[in-house]
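dumping this here before i forget
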Amino acid sequence: MALAAGLLAQGTKAVLPARQRFERGVEKRSIFEDLLLDVIGVTIIVFAGAFPGLRLKWLQRGQSSAGALRAANLSPAPGTAAQAVPPSLEALKDLLTGTDRFAHVLLVCGYSDIERFRDAVNLYSMGRVRKIVIAGGYGRATLDLVRNAVKAGIAVKISDARTINTEAQVDELVRLQEQGRIGDVFTNSESQIIFQVMQAYAKQEGIVIKARDVKLETKSRNTKENLINSRPLFEEFRQEIASETGAEVPTLDVAVNQVPLQELRATSNFNRVFENEITAGTVLGKSVTVAYNMHEYTPERFTELAVAEMWRVVTHYAKGDLLPVIAESRGLSAVPGQYWAATLDAIAAYPDKAALRKQLVAIAEG
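structure:
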């Protein structure tokens, strides 16, 4: 509570400039921002002031954290029956997964779930993306990627001289990594491994990936570096597409290959890194993904996934990592109110609100 008291003592004028990215959100904050700040209550302090302005307004209302939870309907009220998850969750799914039909370039980053790479192949095959940039040097998920490829029956070349076919061989690589010797045997980049997996999937499905349609970025070690280091490759593709089509490409549409339900967050991450290009109108992040069937989950499970994802969008935006761009509007205020309302409806219908609150707190603390 000391930090909270400190924020109050500073006053609004002193606090708000500390988070300039949120200035519009302070005045035009959505109902879900109010909700989640109240949900977390004192736990929001773990952000060390990431939401100073909004936190201050909440404190000035003089509401206790228990009262905030009751107002947000995240603690069960006596005698209240659980409601069914509302149909509006279908719209929320569309927001999170994206409904864009086409992008000039698909950015594929390192990921241990190799099914994402099958998705990339299928998007390319369907003509929903024209070109592919695969980014990644050697990262924390590289060996998991190799292991999952081997489990799927895909042999992986980690160097010109060595191919991995078994999990026992992967275990050996793990030991070498623990000893700091992985570089002695693992010389191919993660992007090269990913391309091998994509080629294997393409072969299985009779798809041909043209060499001219793929570029590899081989140095980055995290998602932000994936984006930054891919910038020159995007520009190369802009020129090549213009040459192939005979038409200039003033705005290059780029999609980020990700788990479907995380598309909004992935695209918003891209938009933050490329904010200057977006302002200039030369680049735009798009959400182009495979079909996603929310009905594969129980309503309760989908609610958990969707609410957690909306919360991540809010918290990552507050930290400056994301920039949602929707219909030329930017920031959280760009997200139409119907989606925040859908989230509130889902929370209201969720049967175990204490467990949901615990999940949100864990995300905040992480």
